[in-house]
Specification:
Layout: H1 3-28, H2 31-35, H3 39-46, H4 49-63, H5 73-86, H6 88-100, H7 108-119, H8 129-141, H9 152-167
């Protein structure tokens, strides 16, 4: 099989897996639905469901990164909210990652950046830096799976205001 066809097949599998994993998670995903024919095709390219999920997550991490700035955590939360508002499937994949995988993505550099901002008096030290990061991400994600009952602009402003109040010294 020419490499171009292999790459197109790999891309098609990855795109289908993205949709499948966002909807069903690892446990609920079916390789037959991803491959749209024989599950063997997906196993040939990725080895198994876990490896395919890892490939999807690896791609998503790059595509879903937003600028992190410990000196502007409300702005970071707003940008994260915007991303999840525009692409709710990214929030679902992150939820499946937390639910079905024990390991987590390292955010050590972000935690250290928050710690430095706390030492400079720019961010409240009421909570440990790891807790601040988790709280900011939770606030930014709180409407990711909820039906839209209010204006996007109002929600974004609420996210930024809540984070501002959380981290103000």
């Amino acid at each position: 099989m020419p490499s171009r066809d292999r790459e197109r097949t790999r891309r098609r599998l990855l795109d289908a897996a993205f949709v499948e994993f966002a909807a069903y998670g690892i446990a609920g995903a079916r390789m037959e639905r991803i491959a749209r024919c024989s599950a063997g095709l997906a196993y040939t390219y990725y080895g198994g469901k876990d490896e395919l999920f890892d490939a999807v997550q690896s791609e998503v991490v790059g595509a879903s990164s937003v600028e992190f700035d410990a000196r502007d955590l409300p702005g970071y939360a707003g940008r994260l909210y915007d991303l999840q508002h525009q692409h709710p499937e990214l929030a679902r994949l992150a939820t499946w990652q937390r639910l079905e995988r024990r390991g987590s993505i390292s955010r050590a550099a972000d935690v250290e950046s928050i710690r430095s901002a706390q030492e400079l008096g720019l961010v409240s030290a009421r909570f440990a830096p790891e807790q601040v990061l988790q709280l900011v991400q939770a606030i930014a994600s709180m409407w990711a799976s909820a039906p839209s009952t209010s204006d996007h602009v109002v929600r974004r402003q609420t996210v930024e205001d809540a984070v501002r109040r959380l981290v103000e010294p």
